[in-house]
Amino acid sequence: MSRRVLVTGAASGIGAEVAHRFVDAGDEVVSLDLKDTPVGVARHVHCDLSDVASIDAAVAALDGEFDALCNVAGVPGTAPAELVLRVNLLGLRHLTESVVERIRPGGAIVNVASIAGYGWADRLTALRELLATDTVDEGLAWFAEHPQAGNAYNFSKEALIVYTMLMAPVFGENGVRMNAVCPGPVETPILGDFEESMGKENLDALSAFLGRHATPADIAGPVLFLAGPESAWINGHALVADGGISGAVLTGMIPPPEI
């Protein structure tokens, strides 16, 4: 049976591949993106995740109910720290909580996080404080008052992983699951930005260890799995899709990359 699916970031990279997979399966895809989305989706709605007014306007323009929301859009660590947090967490949260009541029982939300968020447990107290804020402005004020060590991208993805775990049981009360996919480096148009912010030598070492970086298709499969009925008993989970990097680090085979 055909489903109705919302996909952010559908104009390029992982988001485009996710949208195409749903379309190929016969599903109706509505894209939310700053840029025009490739032909194939049922409808494109302009949405700037850094702008609450733009998110609200996009939500107001949507019609009917949906079976899944795939939050794929994001910005790399080369962007200003406030923008990274706005898009990768706070705008995503605002959009998600604005549309969750329009997701049918049995539906799903899938957030694309990153293995760059692997340190979430070490900052759990701070992350819970950030996530206790109610609005984008409150979240930004907390961030300004509590400077975090390291790359803002890593922090934003740590927060997204914790948000996924914290809110999954809450949304689950209405029959909506929420999970995350955590990729390693992916061959997308912004890979160069990640090389700049995380160190090209680090990403090259990961590619050499695995033989290649991931492709958008490698990540789209797990996203569709978590958005579909086959994963009906998986909730609040951060699924690592990194070709084996995390396992090698956790077992001491290779040292953790300095990203």
From TrEMBL:
Pfam families: adh_short, adh_short_C2. It comes from the Bacteria. The keyword tRNA processing does not apply. Its EC number is 1.1.1.194. GO terms for molecular function: coniferyl-alcohol dehydrogenase activity. InterPro entries: NAD(P)-bd_dom_sf, SDR_fam. NCBIfam families: PRK12428.1. This is Coniferyl-alcohol dehydrogenase.
